[in-house]
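QA checklist item 7 of 12: single-chain prediction sanity check.
[x] sequence parsed
[x] length recorded as 179
[x] structure emitted
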Amino acid sequence: MQDMQVISANTPDRRGWLFSRRMLNGLGFLICAGGLGFAYYVQHYLGFEPCPLCIFQRLALLALGLVFLVATLHGPRDWGAKVYGVLVGLAAGIGAGIAARHVWLQHLPPEEAPRCGPSLEYMLQAFPLNETIREVLTGSGECAKVDWGLLGFSMPEWTLLLFVVLGVAGVIGNWRLRS
């Protein structure tokens, strides 16, 4: 009986890798990469041009994916994992805020939607960066238009859901799961 206890104590838990921080962060990275891949598919193969808020959401998703990737490769323990959890929450929160603004603009009545502004490329060439960011985040008419939908939800609504789910899972997972 005592030999069985020694054997079971030295046998690794085969289910442990499934519920680890490293697996969660790796999965978060793959989901972010898939989301970015889908956005580029919609742009280049379906022919939908992204508005400035869409581009900022892509940047936030890229930042979130990079945090997940670095956390996966680093595999920190204890307080290091908590730092990654905070970084995931920060990147996801910024992305969710941008997506929420986009969703709000899409739900405005057409007469209340802001006027269409210059393209992001033009703004980056003509204005200082801080003014360009301010202009983009205030939104424009092209951001209020819904071009694509799935199950009755627009792309910014799906992106908002993605940021919330990844943010909550990333924060809780990095704070609570073992490495």
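[x] summary fact logged: The beta strands are 149-150, 153-154.
[ ] second reviewer sign-off
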